[in-house]
Each structure stands twice: as C-alpha cells, then as structure tokens.
C-alpha cells in the first residue's frame, strides 16, 4: 500500500480501487455534535476514514500536507490551501508528519454546496483573519455564541466564492489497467515523460490511450501529465528551501521561463508570486493562531 502524503503517493493511490481505511478513531470529526464548531488539529502521520459525516468540513492546512481521497479521485492539500469536504461524502484522510490544520464544521442547511464532491483552493488573507477571529471567540464563552453562529453562516456563504476556482491539486482515479500503467510510468519518469513514451510503455497506440483517458478522466493525456507536474510543482514551491530553477527541472521543464509560462497559465500567478503569497499568509496565520491558542490556554487555567 502507498505510504506518505506526497504527489508520488497520491499517484500510486489513483491506481488502486477506493475503499475505506480500517479503524474507527477520528480526529477530523464533529464527534456526534450537529452544530458548527472550529478547532486547531495537530497530527503526525494520522489516517482516518468516514462513510459520510453529518456536517460539512472546511480544512485549512497551515503546516504539513493532507491527502484526501474519494471514489472519483484524490486531493493533495499543501500549506495555505484548504479543502471543502461536503457532508455525507465517503473519504479517506491522511496527514504528513507535523501537520497542523484549522478545521471548521459547517451546517449543510446554512448554504448548499455547489460542487459535486470535494474541492481545493488557495487560502486568501480573509480566510486566515476570519478563522483566527472565530478561534478567539470560541474561547470567550456563551455570551459570544450568537455572534459566532452568524460568522459560521457567513463562512458557509463565502465558501461558494472561495471555491469557485478551476479544480486543482486533484487527480482522478484510474479505472483500467492501461491507464494505471500510464500513471505509473508518468510517476516514475516525471522529469522527462512524454505521451508517446508513456503509450509505448503501455503497449498501446496513442489514439487508443487518448480515448481511454477521455472516457475515464474527461481530459487528454497531455493534460494529465501537466496536472501531475503542476501538483508536484505546487508541493515543491511550498518548501521554501528549494530554488525555483530546481522546481522547474524536477517537474520536467528545461528552463525557468517555460516553467513560469506553464505555471502562470495554470495557476494565474508566477511561481515566485505564488510562493511569496503563501509565505506571507502563513507567517500572518502563525502569529494569529499562536495568539488564539494562548488565549485558549489561559482560559483553561482560569475558567470563569
């Protein structure tokens, strides 16, 4: 079975049939409550599954990475990105070492979810500010309950705007042996994979493989390779110690300029701008979270 929470592990999982993980212990759960709430969750290589929860979940990754998979495919959620997991959707969830996330449980009746299944997007500054405020207010006692409840309703409505982006950090599940073989080849040769070479490795003509790709994924083989490269690029860009030149080479681009063009066309920002936006947001988030957690600790020592 694939281990880890990386692009490579996500690729391997796309080649295996989806089934719920064993075990009943949960951390990303409302624990039987059916009212909105917010929590900071720290995990080290945690995994869990659900046949479907009563509440929607919005998970903002602050540190580390999360892998979420369902029947149609899976998502890799990197720092300063968030995933919306709608109520009643079966899923498996895995975290990397040292993962921290803000998890908001939302009432499905507050606002309908507009996608079929989960969705991932990059967090904006308002997300961090709003969640920090909600974390602080959640520690202030019953006198803040009505205001906090209204903030949960507002957040539910904002999710429609925040998650309106094209699908990202997602790979569909392969159904045929041929497409599984194609994905395995791309995973092993990401730096230099081409459609022609991958089809040769699968012992099928490109025309046949293109047909299978459109049937299973609703897009072609070239797009599939690009999506894998962009997922890996986003993962590497979240690591501040790796130069952009090295990121470009790692995902199969011979020059920084060609990588920048491809990345900008897909993400709407240059690699450098994307990294800087993440860095600034996470620095602000860290101080806001630390303040909220300190307030929580003080309240626990000095209950009213």
Q: Numbering strands along the chain, what is their spatial order in the largest sheet?
A: 1-8-3-6-9
Number of strands: 10
Question: Kindly state the mean pLDDT as a whole number?
Answer: 91
Question: What radius of gyration results from the CA coordinates?
Answer: 20 Å
CATH topology of the largest domain: Jelly Rolls
Distance between the termini: 49 Å
**Beta-strand content bin:** 15-25%
**Can you tell me the residue ranges where pLDDT is under 50 for at least 5 consecutive residues?**
none
Largest sheet: 5 strands, antiparallel
Query: What would the principal axes of the Cα set say about the shape?
Result: globular
CATH architectural label of the largest domain: Sandwich
CATH-defined superfamily of the largest domain: Regulatory protein AraC
In N-to-C order, the SSE pattern is HEEEEEEEEEHHEHHHHHHH
Instruction: Report the top-level CATH class of the largest domain.
Output: Mainly Beta
Helix count, per DSSP? 10
Secondary structure category: alpha+beta
Helicity range of the residues? 40-55%
Count of separate structural domains: 2
Notes on the structure:
This protein has two domains: 7-162, Sandwich (Jelly Rolls); 174-268, Arc Repressor Mutant, subunit A. By secondary structure, it is an alpha+beta fold. The relative contact order is 0.13. Helix content is 46%, strand content 17%. The strands form two sheets. The chain has a five-stranded antiparallel beta sheet with strand order 1-8-3-6-9, with helices on one face. Helix 1 (7-14) packs antiparallel against helix 4. Strand 4 (66-69) and strand 5 (73-77) form a beta hairpin. The chain has helices at residues 7-14, 125-138, 145-162, 177-188, 195-202, 206-217, 221-237, 244-250, 256-267, 271-301, and strands spanning 37-43, 47-50, 56-63, 66-69, 73-77, 81-85, 91-95, 99-106, 119-122, 170-172. The mean pLDDT is 91.
């Amino acid at each position: 079975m694939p281990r880890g929470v990386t692009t490579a592990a996500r690729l391997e999982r796309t080649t295996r049939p989806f089934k719920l993980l064993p075990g009943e212990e949960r951390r990303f759960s409302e624990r039987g409550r059916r009212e909105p709430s917010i929590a900071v969750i720290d995990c080290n290589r945690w995994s869990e599954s659900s046949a479907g929860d009563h509440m929607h979940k919005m998970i903002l990754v602050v540190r580390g990475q999360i892998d979420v998979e369902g029947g149609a495919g899976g998502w890799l959620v990197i720092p300063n990105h968030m995933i919306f997991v709608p109520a009643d959707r079966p899923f498996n969830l895995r975290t990397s070492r040292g993962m921290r996330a803000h998890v908001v449980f939302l009432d499905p009746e507050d606002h309908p979810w507009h996608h079929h299944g989960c969705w991932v997007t990059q967090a904006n500054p308002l997300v961090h500010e709003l969640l920090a405020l909600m974390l602080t207010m959640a520690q202030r006692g019953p006198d803040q309950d009505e205001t906090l409840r209204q903030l949960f309703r507002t957040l539910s409505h904002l999710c429609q705007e925040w998650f309106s982006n094209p699908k990202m950090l997602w790979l569909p599940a392969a159904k045929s042996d041929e497409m599984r073989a194609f994905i395995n080849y791309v995973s092993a040769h990401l730096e230099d994979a081409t459609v022609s070479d991958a089809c040769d490795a699968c012992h099928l003509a490109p025309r046949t493989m293109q047909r299978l790709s459109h049937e299973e994924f609703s897009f072609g083989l070239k797009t599939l390779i690009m999506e894998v490269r962009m997922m890996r690029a986003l993962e590497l860009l979240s690591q501040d110690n790796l130069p952009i030149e090295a990121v470009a080479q790692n995902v199969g681009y011979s020059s920084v300029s060609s990588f920048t063009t491809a990345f900008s066309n897909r993400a709407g920002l240059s690699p450098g701008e994307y990294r800087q936006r993440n860095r600034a947001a996470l620095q602000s988030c860290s101080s806001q979270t630390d303040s909220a957690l300190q307030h929580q600790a003080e309240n626990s020592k000095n209950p009213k």
